[in-house]
Amino acid sequence: MKHLDEYRSPEKVRALLRELEALVTKPWVIMEICGGQTHAFLRHGLDALLPPQIELVHGPGCPVCVTPLEQIDKAIAIASRPEVIFTSYGDMLRVPGSTKNLFAVRAAGGDVRVIWSPLEAVQLAEANPDKEVIFFAIGFETTAPANAMAVLQAQQKNLRNFSIIASHVRVPPAMEAILSSPSSRTQAFLAAGHVCAVMGYHEYLPLAQQYQAPIVVTGFEPVDLLNGLRAAVRQLEQGRAEVENQYQRAVSLPGNAAAQRTIEAAFQVIDRKWRGIGMIPQSGWGLRPEFAAFDAELKFEVNTLTAPESPLCIAGEILQGKKKTSQCPAFRKQCTPQTPLGAPMVSAEGACAAYYTYHREADHVC
Predict the structure, then answer these.
(1) 259-298 pLDDT, tens per residue?
(2) Side-chain half-sphere CA neighbours of 98 within 13 A
(3) pLDDT the model gives residue 363
(4) pLDDT for 229-270, tens place per residue?
(5) Range 278-292 burial, b when 16+ CB lie within 10 A, else e
(6) Checking DSSP bridges between strand 28-34 and strand 84-88, what pairing results, if any?
(7) What is the pTM of this model?
(8) At a CB cut-off of 8 Å and minimum separation 6, what does 63 contact?
(9) How wide is the angle at C-alpha 243 spanned by C-alphas 37 and 286, nearest 5°?
(10) Is the model's pLDDT at 362 over the cut of 50?
(11) What is residue 133's predicted lDDT score, i.e. its pLDDT?
């Protein structure tokens, strides 16, 4: 635990908070892009300890939260078929579709299984040649290598009964969409360390320069997060806009070349719709044409399904840092973890779930 404890050291946390207090002279709005960072800020109570001039807003860095409603409906339609074994990570089963979720499909007799790795789905396809095995492949850059590897293995094994619903999204285009919005409040970013561990952070360099917004790569422990905030505030106060790596123990500028090659072997960059935000150009990965046989949306002819969002849910504005979770009129009322209207209340990394879990009140400003 030694190397973990040093990033949770109360003494280091207090020292960094004192440095922040001494640095900040103006109000600044800083977005942590990752839902894991949001939960860490609130779980450790760091948001309540920050100088009042620093306002945190919470970005779209939760793959469950930004998966479009129609993707959930497509998954439900496929999972409901009798010949299908539908596999997914556990948090996707609770995400509401238009009328129900994947748990309801399982309760009605559908073969819906929680797995820990997409390679388990490949093994299921081998073991069940009379069934169609589908994996719900969601995620940012962090899960893309394993999901791509599953497709590559299925191809090598000639498993024509295996396919995926590809719902991958990419972080840099989403950051650009936020920065380019006329109503954006975000002045600096804390970039997600695990995403950068895979992809590096070279894609962020032109963003920082073009939009004059500091971007700091951080980890997920209290000392990591406060180091990231200190670097971002220092740049803002000095009028600089650069990319800094405060997570050097895990992240390098080029990233993981082997993982990137695996992604590129199976996926190509495409435009992707984000839940509550809309279409963001070049912000997703879809299967390459040569892997069309492994595309569940094509195989089961559900790629034309559409679905309207709940008019009560303001998840899109929350995920872009334009509003706080507590400004949603449905928060804690119609929308709770037991009766979620939107994915940010369902996901273990969602901003709404974080505010609900850690009892942040409506008038609280990070």
Answers:
(1) 999 999 999 999 999 887 889 999 999 999 999 999 999 9
(2) 11
(3) 39
(4) 999 999 999 999 999 999 999 999 999 999 999 999 999 999
(5) eebeebbbbbbeebe
(6) unpaired
(7) 0.89
(8) 138, 139, 140, 143, 167, 169
(9) 65
(10) no
(11) 98
Report the alpha-carbon distance of residue 197 to residue 248 in Å, rounded: 9
DSSP 290: G
Q: Is 361 exposed, middle or buried (0-12, 13-18, 19+ CB in 10 A)?
A: exposed
Non-local CB neighbours of 47 within 8 Å, separated by 6+ positions: 41, 56, 360, 366
Asked whether 182 and 315 are in contact (CB, 8 A), the reply is no
Q: How many Å apart are CA 106 and CA 144, to the nearest integer?
A: 26
Query: Quick one: pLDDT at residue 351?
Result: 83
Query: Is it the case that residue 78 has pLDDT exceeding 90?
Result: yes
Q: How far apart are CA 66 and CA 168, in angstroms?
A: 10
Q: Which helix (H) or strand (E) holds 56?
A: strand 54-61
CA distance 175 to 285: 16
- Phi and psi angles of residue 62, each rounded to the nearest 5 degrees, phi first: -135, 110
Residue 136's DSSP bridge partners are: 165
Break the chain into its structural domains and give their ranges: 27-309, 315-357
The CATH fold assigned to 27-309 is Rossmann fold (3.40.50)
Neighbours of 241 (CB within 10 A): 18
On whether the CB atoms of residues 211 and 225 are closer than 8 A, the answer is: no
pLDDT digits (tens, 9 = 90+) for 17-73: 999 999 999 999 999 998 889 989 999 999 999 999 999 998 887 888 888 889 999
Say how many residues make up the chain.
Answer: 366
Query: How large is the C-alpha radius of gyration of the chain?
Result: 21
What is the C-alpha separation between 41 and 47, in angstroms, rounded?
Answer: 6
Cα–Cα separations (whole angstroms), residue 96 to 100, 213, 352: 6, 35, 15
Nearest alpha-carbon partner for 269 in 141, 151, 155, 118: 141
CA 221, 225, 228, 234 torsion-angle sign: negative
**Phi, psi (deg, nearest 5) at residue 37:** -70, -40
